[in-house]
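If I may wish for something, please walk me through the protein I am sending here so I can picture the backbone:
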Amino acid sequence: MTNKKWEEIILVAPRNTVFNNESLAFQGTEQRKEVVDEIIANLSDSNTSFRRGATTDPTPKENNAEINTDYKQPIPYVLIKRGNEIYTYERLSGGGESRLHSKLSLGVGGHMNPEEGNFQEVLMINLNRELQEELNIQSSARNLQFIGLINDDLNEVGKVHLGILAILELSDDATVAVREVEQLEGYWLTIDELKQSGTYNRLEPWSQIAVDIL
């Protein structure tokens, strides 16, 4: 059995190139500008198109990015911030990534598809598309700031992905609502609430990593 999402063409880059033969590898977040800039430059120089696949797809790793740990898939990962609150959403069972169902997430983003332009331009096209597709944002001001990278090689999802972490600051009177109500449920939580163990333990790994630096 095949799945349309399996056939999606996404951007990937060889792990050895991205991390310069592991000399730039890290666990958690990387915020040092010189290191982030070098990793982004490596992504820019070495990215290529690849079939997405899936962990449940029997296709071998040579044509299945989701099980191919030789490559990293760059993922824009945007936190939506309003004052001291972060927009939080729960992945419902109708969502696409079964490994993350029932988890809480703070990051909006997804796989990058090939587009015309340099890597930064392609990143912004994909980032803005994900925000538009997933959320209805009403805000009198928006300030997007990239703050680092996320890497988590301690779990199967993280091994094949690399997060490009950003914060989107909204006005104090902003409203946000999820569009994919069958897949997501969203609400605001303060940073302190997110760090309470009952909530923190439900966060997906990347969101825990992001909360730790807020």
